[in-house]
Amino acid sequence: MRDVSIIGIGQTPVGEHWDKSLRELAYQALLAAMQSAGVERVDALYVGNMLSGELTAQEHLGALIADFAGLRGIEAIKVEAACGSGAAALRVGYMAVASGLCDLVACIGVEKMTDQQGSTVTSALAMAADAEYEALQGLTFVSINALLMRRYMHEYGYRKEDFANFAINAHANAVNNPYAMFRSPITAAQFAEAKPIADPINLLDSSPIADGAACVILAPTSIAREFTDKPVRVRAIAIATDTLAVHDRRDPLYLEGGALSAQKAYAMAGVGPADIDVFELHDAFTIMSALSLEAAGFAPRGQGVRLAMDGEIGLNGRIPITTMGGLKARGHPVGATGMYQIVEVAQQLREEAGLNQVKNAQLGMAQNIGGSGATVVTTILERI
What we know:
Elements: E1 4-11, H1 22-37, E2 44-48, H2 52-56, H3 61-68, E3 75-79, H4 85-98, E4 105-111, H5 118-125, H6 141-156, H7 164-174, H8 188-193, E5 196-198, E6 201-202, E7 212-220, E8 232-241, H9 256-269, E9 278-280, H10 286-295, H11 304-309, H12 326-330, H13 334-349, E10 363-370, E11 375-383
């Protein structure tokens, strides 16, 4: 197996792109990444996406985007793993390069969500849950996370306001990210007074749906410096799964898929949580931030919220998270989210994060979650 590195990155602003189609968003991110890498062609294209068939009536994205980008003839396929599709596409691309089957690979995450009504999008997102035992009973992802948050507060004695700093931190970091959807800071008072959605979750606990695309170009590490002075090595990438339905899990407050994928990634990289300088977690809801921190080993069970309360998640904290705004403030175009996380970790390691730069970042980690934890992809990247 060959070492693999990221040699180019690209992204579009996250937001409501009324004037751009799904293929145009994907192309813009791909073109930016290829220009960043200084390449005109790739051997393969892997597209992470969840909802193109449901929301845009368009499947067969691999061939569609390859053709639109002037890459007709190359290997190109869509990869779907719910909200974990972006990082899952990276995993497929990583295997293609590491195995020697391809030398240059483009991995894209793309989603177009805002052209449809909210109820349509909510129903589409629910397809990542158990259709018979969750969605058919009326559960949405907001209500599933509300139940998890309510149980977490009951088990560990937290109050609703204790989760505020997850959202406050994300918005503070998004201010300096030109690609973020919400570039305004929020206060604890605004968090407390936000519109309720599903008790105890309110509007500022929740990430917004959005349109967007992000892309990386992969190459063998042995030739990476032929393309860029700032290659970022993929030190590890691992996928693990859990049950689709939360009620089938051994413990609903433990992201077993998150823990397993993190443990696999740590073992593959030969590092542990203490070695990670920056962590882009899947903050679709504030409760997921706490559960992800615990599953990845940054906090004991029931103490993930304490990291936020104590200010340990900021840019100068013990474990900086959501350094460019996270899902909460950068936005959550679901199939693209995992790739945005990878691009943002790469920005930190390439020292291209501007005012949000984490000082001396050498190792960064991203954890992309599909559904309520049924698929989790953990990636560790290294500055070389």
